[in-house]
Amino acid sequence: MTATFTPDADWLRFHPDPSKPGYTPPPGAVDAHCHVFGPGDVFPYAPERKYTPADAGKEQLFALRDYLGFDRNVIVQATCHGADNSALVDALLAADGRARGVATIRPGVSRSELDDMNAAGVRGIRFNFVRRLTDPKPDEYYRGLADRVAELGWHIVVYFEAADLAERWQLFTSFPTPVVVDHMGRPDVTQPLDGPDFSLFTRFLTENENAWSKVSGPERLTKSGPPQYADVVPFARHIVETFPGRVLWGTDWPHPNMKSHMPDDGALVDVIPRIAVTGELQRRLLVDNPLRLYWEGR
Ligand code: 0GY
Q1: Model pLDDT for residues 122-170, shown as the tens digit of each residue
Q2: pLDDT band at 2, cuts 50/70/90?
Q3: Which residues sit with their C-beta closer than 6 Å to ligand 1?
Q4: Closest C-alpha to ligand 1, atom 3
Q5: Taking 70 as the threshold, does the pLDDT of residue 298 lie above it?
């Protein structure tokens, strides 16, 4: 409970009692896309936020990690905390080396602030282009911040709608760092795999060896629905099989802004062996790739 913040009236809270997955992740598996929210009375939500979530703190995240059979987390700063990364850093420091972070920064951030974040475990920053979440900024804004974090060996995470890739292509390919795309660039899964938007996305990955994709977010992309997410599986499987060394997977807990349903996190884990169909693909997706990018510095 927070004293100061009330979640949006239509806010869906994370699943209170997820099922135990049938699939067992390999030892060392990383949930490479998840968030912490507040608690708001300790880590207040940003004044410029577009939504007010229900609190979802680090203790609950770490309990879910253990319950689902994962070893580590990559915690991604969400827009509701703006560029105040305190809740993220607090979670990283409490994780005993078992979490890394992706922060949000603004121009004017000092080198010592970046160094402190680095010491806590931050290894990247996120640029969000989804208009319902942030107000767009000129390309120069993003380029300046990318140059700042390149010095630290960090990378850039980008979140955008499929229709916006063409417009941002030049920006994304100009970053001097690896670029990690959230949720496969949010394809319209009612279109064929070789439809124009998803073809452009696979071309982006093919032509840019620095580009990675998270094969996450079936609950956001599906039209056919849970628990199978059958319409999303071919898209994720295609990316995993074509770019096995540049893919990451994450729960996206606590699933901000879900309106259609709140996923059962156990069911999400059970999608993994359907998108990474061999033990080797699973090990690369869940262990080797995230360890390389977040723990070993590429
Ligand atoms: C996600 C997706 C969403 C939210 C955010 O930073 C955020 O607020 O990323 C969304 O609403 O689609 O990956 O968490």
Answers
A1: 999 999 999 999 998 999 999 999 999 999 999 999 999 999 999 999 9
A2: very low
A3: 35, 78-80, 128, 133, 159, 182, 252, 256-257
A4: 256
A5: no
Whole-number pLDDT of residue 4? 84
Q: Catalytic annotation on 55?
A: no
SS3 content of the chain, % helix, strand, coil (to 5): 40, 15, 50
Residue 2 in domain:
no
**Which residues constitute the domain of residue 184?**
30-294
Tokens 């693909």 belong to residue: 281
Handedness of CA 66, 72, 74, 80 (dihedral sign): positive
Please state, in angstroms and rounded to a whole number, the distance separating the CA atoms of residues 214 and 62. 21
DSSP H or E stretch at residue 206 = helix 196-207
C-alpha dist (Å) from residue 82 to 74, 167, 250, 288 = 18, 24, 21, 31
- Is 23 domain-assigned? no
Number of domains comprising the chain? 1
Which of 50, 130, 134, 268 for mutating ligand 1's site (highest number of atoms within 8 Å of CB)? 130
| Ligand 1 geometric centre to CA of 256 (Å) | 6
Provide the CATH number for the domain around residue 166: 3.20.20.140
Residues in the chain: 298
Q: Which ligand 1 atom minimizes the distance to the CA of 133?
A: 8
Q: How many angstroms does the Cα of residue 298 sit away from the middle of ligand 1?
A: 25
**Bridge partners, 73 (sequence order):** 31, 99
